[in-house]
Design a protein that fits this description.
globular, outer membrane lipoprotein receptor (LolB), chain A, 208 residues, 11 strands, eleven-stranded antiparallel beta sheet, mainly beta, 3 helices
Length: 208
């Protein structure tokens, strides 16, 4: 379940409205004023429009301080792979048409919708962020721009973008107990061709 929590917020919109915001504890600042927010939105929109592929290692830090590690690959539109380093043996694959979570330890396959993912705005066919179902509140510190996103009916998530060079560096969500989960990226590589096999999933439970 911790795997799903790194991507999904398994809460209803009603519960989400009462939740604290998923912001890093070190962020001691108010949201950017309107003019600076507009500039931040323009910078983020340009980044998403240019984004084709992204690969990295990731570290997921849970509220109790425990860590999980794995690899992250993204290819727009619609393709995503997060594979955890065992144990546990967890895999999430976005094929472009479907989103699949596989728990190899219990041999369980779950199918999800793109709208279930806080990362969905990075996967859409339409690259623009200027849309009615997506709202951002921006914060910053010396090295990061933080975009608190409210996407469709999903509970909020916060994405941290390194300023120089500008790129996705982390995201923050709340678990079902409203405790912060942090996913940070390392060795980020953007714009390089990725193997199509990364984004295929063959259900090992199906008879052959």
């Amino acid at each position: 379940m911790a795997f799903l929590l790194c991507l999904l917020l398994l809460l209803t919109p009603a519960l989400a409205s009462a939740m604290p915001l998923p912001l890093p504890a070190t962020l001691q600042t108010e949201p950017l004023p309107p003019a600076e927010s507009a500039a931040a939105f323009k910078q983020l929109d340009a980044y998403v429009k240019k984004l084709t592929t992204l690969s990295a290692r990731f570290t997921q830090t849970n509220a109790d301080g425990s860590e999980l590690h794995g690899t992250f690959d993204l290819q727009r539109p619609g393709r995503l792979r997060l594979e955890y380093a065992p144990p546990p043996r967890w895999l999430f694959v976005g094929t472009g048409n479907s989103y699949v979570y596989y728990d190899a330890d219990v041999k369980q396959v779950s199918y999800l919708g793109r709208s279930d993912l806080p990362l969905a705005f990075l996967l859409e066919d339409d690259a623009t962020l200027n849309r009615s179902d997506l709202k951002f509140t921006f914060y910053e510190d010396d090295t990061m721009l933080y975009a608190l996103s409210r996407y469709a009916d999903n509970p909020p998530a916060t994405f941290a973008f390194q300023k120089n060079p500008f790129q996705l560096a982390a995201w923050y969500i709340l678990d079902q107990e409203q405790q912060l989960i942090t996913v940070t990226l390392q060795d980020v590589s953007a714009g390089k061709p990725l193997d199509a096999a990364l984004f295929r999933f063959v259900d090992p439970n199906r008879p052959r």
